[in-house]
Amino acid sequence: MNPCPEGHLLNSPLRYAVVGCGRIAPLHLAALTAMPQVRLAATCDIVEERARAAAERFGAERYATDYRQLFRSGHLDAVSLCLPHHLHAEAILAAAEARIHVFCEKPLATTPADADRVIVACDRAGVRLGVCYQNRYNRASQELRKAVDQGRFGRILQAGITFQNRKSADYYAPGDWHGRWATEGGGALTTQAIHMMDLMLWLLGPAASVQARMATLVHAIEVEDTAAAAIEFASGALGTVVATTAAHTFWSQRLEIAGTHGKAVLLNNRIDEWDFADGAPDRTEVMAIDELRDTPDERGRYGPGHGRILRDFVHCLLAGRPFALDGREGRQISDLLWAIYESGRTGHLVRLRRPAVSDGLVGHVGPVGPA
Q1: pLDDT tens-digit profile of 39-68?
Q2: Is there a domain that residue 146 lies in?
Q3: Angle at CA 355, nearest 5°, toward 352 and 361?
Q4: Is 198 among the domain residues?
Q5: I want to staple 115 with a disulfide (CB 3.0 to 4.6 A). Which of 8, 109, 151, 158 is the partner?
Q6: What is the C-alpha separation between 161 and 266, in angstroms, rounded?
């Protein structure tokens, strides 16, 4: 990742704005206002009352309804984008043009072309681009990653995700951006299961191919409310993803990893199973981790991940260090999602390829056809 541009050295406190004051914004705002290194310079939303209410609640210096004008004011160092998915790319491009560092909610973009555009634009402008996959920062997820890095699983053979959620008709209300390909970019996978899928890639490495089926079984929407995918990883390991937003269950997410020397299960951000050939001497300690209980958030299911990832982003900006979850890293899960959707539409196995470094891109969906 490029360093901060010459002549634009960042000092504490950072002048920070949050654009988009809907359901996820309070998690960003609470995290940012808890940091002494951050000055909440502005909130912004196309609905003035939402922007004003967020500014009053979290003590922003001002509020705005036009992010382009806000960016052109020259009074910002960094911004969190908490916008509908289809608006991410244009907002990132506007921030890059104004040389404002960007932390964007998932997904990075809704199309491969837009993902390419924003990564290149931020590189050229010399601004940092971070993507919000906060579950990597949960303690239970960190324990899984540590076990992988220490080789405790042996050879990882299999990983599986099961995600079950119940979304109401109000969530997919007519005229809302949810439920449409052009605006949401996907359904149960893109908006809900994506965080567990990001963890699976983080732990097992890149995917090589995917075969998927999608369905819209309950909701009156364009995108999938139910999906299943079989994944082959570059390592040779096999994985599955099963997700729905039409279940009776309010919220259940499970990730299971099995290898030649160990098995672990992550259930709703807690370790539910921890079994290793070394006897798992840390089992009691690891299985006692319950951050949803110890650090509850106002949505009731996220835990402290947003605070941690935003602190890391801010610290990287001030220290001039690379941010691990940058645009290229954040794009990898989008490439997998686009491959799953391609397979679901065509019924064919889809291979993912990793392009040459000169492409400047993380990955593309390869040619589609029968296996």
Answers
A1: 999 999 999 999 999 999 999 999 999 999
A2: yes
A3: 100
A4: yes
A5: 109
A6: 9
User: Residue 170 domain-assigned?
Assistant: yes
Residue 263, judged by CB atoms within 10 A of its CB (0-12, 13-18, 19+), counts as: middle
Considering the domain architecture, whether residues 67 and 210 belong to the same structural domain is answered as: no
Alpha-carbon distance of 358 to 206, in angstroms, equals 19
Residues 191 and 89 in one domain: no
Look at residue 207 and tell me whether its pLDDT is greater than 80.
yes
Does residue 179 sit in the same domain as residue 69?
A: no
Q: How far is CA 57 from CA 26, 41, 43, 47, 231, in A?
A: 9, 13, 11, 16, 44
The residues, ordered by sequence, that sit 6+ positions from 131 with a Cβ below 8 Å of its Cβ are: 103, 104, 106, 107, 108, 325, 326, 327, 329, 330, 331
pTM for the full predicted model? 0.91
Residue 21 backbone phi and psi in degrees, to 5: -115, 40
**171 and 254 in one domain?**
yes
pLDDT above 60: residue 360: no
What is the torsional sign of CA 76, 324, 105, 306? negative
User: Can you give the CATH number for the domain in which 246 is found?
Assistant: 3.30.360.10
Number of domains in the chain: 2
DSSP state of 358: G
**Measuring CA to CA, which residue among 36, 38, 27 is closest to residue 76?**
38
Cis geometry, peptide bond prior to residue 26 (ω within 30 degrees of 0) = no
**Residue 294: pLDDT band by 50, 70, 90 thresholds?**
low
- Do residue 221 and residue 359 come from a single domain? yes
Mean pLDDT of the 24-30 span: 97
Residue pointed to by tokens 């269950």: 249
- Span 194-216, average pLDDT: 98
Residues 236 and 344 in one domain: yes
Sign of the alpha-carbon torsion through 55, 184, 91, 354: positive
Domain assignment present for 286:
no
